[in-house]
Each structure stands twice: as structure tokens, then as C-alpha cells.
Amino acid sequence: MTTTVSAFYKFVPVGDCDALRAELSAFGEREGLRGTILIAPEGINATIAGPDIGVRAMLAHLRADPRFAGLVSKESFAEQQPFQRWKVKVKPEILTFDAPEADPNVRVGTYVNPEDWNALISRDDVLLIDTRNDYEVAIGTFRGAVDPKTRAFTEFKDYVESSLDPARHTRIAMFCTGGIRCEKASAYLLAHGFGEVYHLQGGILNYLEKVRPDASLWDGACFVFDERVSVVHGVAPGGHRLCGCGWPIAANEACCPRCSADSAAPSADSGSHSP
């Protein structure tokens, strides 16, 4: 049976995190859902999966709360349940960044619809930045995008400090998987004096759903944080799996290039030695 997968987030003040956790945990159990919902004083962030009727019931339940009335979700489908468990957790942040000034409830960059994204990133005066981590960028990104080579999102602040300058980089466009990282990244850049900051509304997933492959500036597959591992245009499964080290690899690959390089390198006591 086909499983419906829904990814959503919303930055909005939440004052009763523990009570909301208990409420959503019980609701999801009754509807047969799996996946994870994170709740924090700054909002909610989730990817859930299950029977279509159960997923729709959870979304309707959330939108009945005035705080989440405008909740936008992105749905895709999987042949098998992509999650093992159902978890609802309370965290200090729904996306760890450790920068109080990066508050999307105060201000964020300018949203750009997928249909307008190609025109923006094709401009010579726009610096295009992939805000995702290195293992995500490894299997796909937009043409011409800068890879900050971060291993965790918190390292994006170091990239900004070492590589970006508000005086030189006056127009920046950013993107991520579903949009949430760009909310904080754009808020951070604005707080640090950058003037024009744009981000892809709904992220790569929204772009892959709405932009035809023959009109696309996206190359490769998009890493996702469930057992599908990756998706491609149409948000269809991309055919990747995880290497033992956690990096995504094609289904016919034994291991990722990093592991291949490590295994090929001679050890300290291997090779020939002069007598």
C-alpha cells in the first residue's frame, strides 16, 4: 500500500511545548503515523508518514490551531513506510543553529517561487549558495551553486564569517531541502548587514515538484532524511542508499568515494621497505 509522506514546518511562538507534544503524540498514535515532529518555543518542524487519511487528519488537526492555520506541507509518496517509529520531541530549537539573532519570527529573506527561481539564479549579480551539508550536496545541487562544505548547519556561520562580505555580496540567493534552513540562514545574513537575501520557497522539494525536468537547472538527486534517501523530479525516489559511513551512494555502488579512497590508501605498515 502506498504511504503518504508529509514534510512541514512553521516558525511561530509556541508557549505550551510539553502539552502540544503530548497532544500530537497521542493523535499520531491513533492515526497509525510514523516519523518525527519537533516542537520548540520558535515553532514546529516535521516529516511524517502513514495512511493518506491519517496524514490528512494530522494536518487538519494542526491547522485547526490558530497558530498553525497557515501551515504549508509538501506531500510525496513511497511504496513502503520510510520511518521506523513515531516520535514527538520538545527541543530548544526546531533547527539547531545556535544564533539567537537568526530569528525567522522577526524577519527572513525574500521568498522566491519555483517558477521564478531560474531567472533569479541566472543573473550575473546573484551569488547562489547551497545551505545544505556536504553529504547532501554530493548527489545533487543547482548549477553554479557555491558549496560551503559544511558538515553541520551550525558551521554555516563560520562560512559566512570567512567567505561572505556585505559590501561585495550584495545580492544572495539560497536554497535547501524544504526551506527551513534558509529561514534561519536568511535571517542570520540580514542580521549581519547583508542587503538583498532571497531563498527558494518550499525548497528543492517544491522545485522538483513544480518545474519540468526539461526546464530545470537542478542536476542530480535531492537527499532526504528518511529511508528513501533521495528523490528526483516529480519527488520520485532517486535510487540512492546510504554507505556504511552515512553518505548517500547509488544503488550499484559498494561505498562512497571517501571510503573508497580510505581503503585504497596504504596503511603505515604496508608496502615495501628497504632492508
How is this structure best summarized?
By secondary structure, the protein is of the alpha/beta class. The protein has helices at 17-30, 52-63, 114-121, 134-137, 156-163, 180-191, 203-210, 257-264; strands at residues 3-11, 34-40, 43-50, 72-78, 86-90, 110-112, 127-130, 140-142, 171-175, 196-200, 218-220, 222-223, 230-232, 236-237, 240-242, 248-250. 27% of the residues lie in helices and 26% in strands.
Task: Give structural notes.
27% of the residues lie in helices and 26% in strands. It is α/β, with parallel strands linked by helices. The strands form 5 sheets. It has a 5-stranded mixed sheet, covered by helices on one side. It has a 4-stranded parallel sheet with strand order 6-10-9-7. Strand 2 and strand 3 form a beta hairpin. The protein is globular, with a radius of gyration of 20 Å.
Features:
single chain; 275 residues; alpha/beta; 5-stranded mixed β-sheet; 4-stranded parallel β-sheet; 8 helices; globular; disordered C terminus
Tally of individual helices: 8
* β-sheet strand percentage: 25-35%
> How far from one another are the termini?
67 Å
Write the element-wise H/E pattern from the N-terminal end onward: EHEEHEEEHEHEHEHEHEEEEEEH
- Biggest sheet details: 5 strands, mixed
Stretches where pLDDT is under 50 for at least 5 consecutive residues are: 265-275
- Which strands sit side by side, in order, in the main sheet? 4-1-3-2-5
Radius of gyration computed on alpha carbons? 20 Å
- Portion of residues within helices: 25-40%
The overall pLDDT, averaged over residues, is 92
The shape, in one word, is: globular
Output the structural class.
Answer: alpha/beta
Strand count = 16
